[in-house]
Amino acid sequence: MKKGLKRIMTAALAGAMVFSLSACGNQSVNGGGNEQQRERQTPEWVYVPEYKELTGNGDYWSMKQIGDYLYYQSNTWDEETGESGSSLKRYSLLDGSEETLPLTFDDGGSLNSFEIGEDGSVYAMIYFWSNDEVTGDYKSWQALAKFDAEGNEVYNVELAELQEKEGIDSFGSMTVDGQGRVYITCDTKIVLFDEAGNYSGLVGVGNDMNSWINGVGRGADGKVYACCYASNGNSGGYQLSEIDFDKKSIGSSYSNFPSGNGNGLVSGDDNSFLVQDGTSVYRYDLASQTSEKLFDWLDSDINGQYVNNIGVTSEGKILAIINDWNTNEYSVAVLTKTPGSEVAQKETIIVGTMGASQELQSAAVAFNKASDKYRITIKQYVDNTAWTETTWSDAIANMNNDITSGNCPDIIDLSNLNVEQLAVKGVFENLAPYLENSTVLKREDYIESILEGYTFGDVLVGIPKTFSIQTVVGNSDDIGTEMGWSLEEMIAYADAHPNASLFDYNSKSNIMYYCMMYNEGTFVDWAKGKCNFDSPEFISLLEFVNRFPDEAEYDDEVSTPRKIQNGEVLLDTAYLSQFDDIQMYNAIFGGKANFIGFPTMDGSVGCAMYANDIYAITTKSPVKDGAWSFIESYLATADTNRWFWGFPTNKNQLDVKIEEATKVETYTWTDENGVEHEEVSGGGSSISYQDGWTYEYHTTTKEEVDQILALFDVAKPAASQNSEIMTIISEEAEAFYKGQKSAAEAADIIQRRAQVYVDENS
Question: Is 108 left (phi over 0), alpha (psi -120 to 50) or beta?
Fold first, then answer.
């Protein structure tokens, strides 16, 4: 499905609201019966935003800040002539004055992108097009042009011949060095032009398909640098490299460069660059090749995911160009470094998460602006500035350590965590009484089966805002019409069809994943701290998994739907996040789809529920009431302005989604003969595979809605398989797969290693 976004230009409020921002006050607190002491320091500095008001139909995505000026394209449309146009505007950050630069393009060209030189010159990529009045042929081409600070054209060079000669499909971002030489990215190369606009060669900065240029920019020294990503097996990293124009090669390189700034490199003070990663702003020092975090966007009541670009004024202030995805509103903020002691103090609530999503940051900003008592801060455990192959596992370990220690956040994002493992330790507050006493929410507002799914013992650990479903689907003629089957029954089904693949793209690892989805609890009892991997059931599972290939064999010629209909593949995994998703699976199995679920040891239904935006309050939190206030406000906010993934857990919002999915509208139209026609709207989108298998969606029917609602009733939280347990299984099963050990011997080693891990983490 494609959803259109309408751009809305808006003027932001001017003036800094210093005292609406707050820092973490010096607090030494005890939390409800927990002997936990936490001291929260007031930060030395806070960056306070002042919003600037811009006029005109400006393109905020192309906006560039040079010194104390903002440059941006302004697009125009002439209703009378039906012609569009563009101009370049300059806005003063000092006095708010605005002017249009007098640039003129021959042959009616349109400004495609631009860069500003140190002397105020404008360098532009201009797009031209024409239609041959005789043949009707359409032609387009690009040119590189330079204008001086007064708008006079210095040169204009067409690039079509160069593109053909060098095999350049398209140009990317552009920057200019201190001498007025131009650098334009193209895939993993940079195209060079001298001061007069003459083509001067190419510089290669990547050597394989997994390398790319993340951004280019001019440093404070006038030199041009490129940030490049290079892969290294399962990991990779960013490196900053100077581009040596004269030698047409890479010059000095700098390691440990943080990721971010996809819209170009931003020069900081002397010998540094600024980087923003959607959560924080960092200063990277070229001399030491290290990064220093300057501030978190949230501390300035800004959602960092909405920041398109940043810059630095002559006074050292940070500039942010912001686009709110929810409302499509744009704003420009200038942030002033302010002593933390001058900012109003609030009680801090810490949210721990693997990654701070734009939804979480947006909710935190809204809550902070509305609350005069509490302030949300976010502790992100994944370090995106230096990604390695252990970054994710390290983050999980660090979060788990904090949860079970005195460094515990007040609120935990439950995504990616083994919720059951933590729940049996009693680390989560029971949200049921809070929900019962809420004057904003009611338990009956939510799908009861979802709440029950996230209740462990009698503790409701979290209330998802949305969720999606993953399950196994097959032909009811073969597997029956009832949902739910045992692992033994699935193995028997595979045995009965030796000439067909159980799933498409079978491999040992994905078959083990499917089989363990709802069976980890059979082999690990976290409440009792016991493992059972040396059991006959697990040995049998190892022997079954060993039937499959070591690696999946991918076939680009024949699609999974066609293989199923040809009898080559038996089952599929269904991913359902919208009501019409179920249609394709019904079509694949000829109207006889049974969403039977992942296999379980006891034959119960293994329908996986993946919760989105679900948060728990920790029992160690000293600010439980404030934490609930945030969760309550987040759940109470209707998502009318944003497209979200999954089904709402709120019944009223779910009813709206059902109404939208099943809505049928009729409209009439009259043809050229005056005959009136009536048609029904709905559906219209389709999905196609490389071999021609196609499905066209229709308006969702009541029967299809009922089929999905039935899955809601049986869905259970996906067993967020403990990564360490699965790693142990994968590592030790390998000796059996290679014939070096028997299944029983491998299971015995898995049992011993897993038991040590459970002992350490129970």
Answer: left
Element (H, E) at 330: strand 329-339
Rounded-to-integer distance, Cα 43 and Cα 448, Å: 43
Give the whole-angstrom CA distance, residue 51 versus residue 286. 31
Residues contacting 714, CB < 8 A, separation 6+? 449, 483, 484, 597, 605, 607
Closest CA to 620 of 51, 17, 173, 34: 34
DSSP string spanning 270-294? TTEEEEE-SSEEEEEETTTTEEEEE
pTM: 0.77
Residue with tokens 């959602």: 303
Average pLDDT along the chain: 85
Strands 411-413 and 344-353: parallel
Contact 267, 178 (CB under 8 A): no
Asked whether 595 and 472 are in contact (CB, 8 A), the reply is: yes
Collapsing DSSP to helix, strand or coil, 303 comes out as coil
CB atoms < 10 A from the CB of 553, how many?
A: 10
Judge contact between 170 and 186, C-beta under 8 A. Answer: yes
Least Cα distance to 630 among 413, 396, 367 occurs for 367
Percent of the chain with pLDDT over 90: 52
For residue 300, the SS3 value is: helix
Contact, 748 vs 733, CB < 8 A?
A: no
DSSP code at position 12: P
Sign of the CA dihedral running 341, 343, 345, 348: negative
Taking residue 511's Cβ as centre, other Cβ atoms within 10 Å add up to 21
Does residue 173 contact residue 112 with C-beta atoms inside 8 Å?
Answer: no
**Would you state the pLDDT for residue 36?**
43
Residues 599-610 pLDDT 10s: 999 999 999 999
Look up residue 11 and give its two tokens.
Answer: 């003027």
The Cα 277–Cα 244 span in angstroms is 27
CA distance 399 to 377: 16
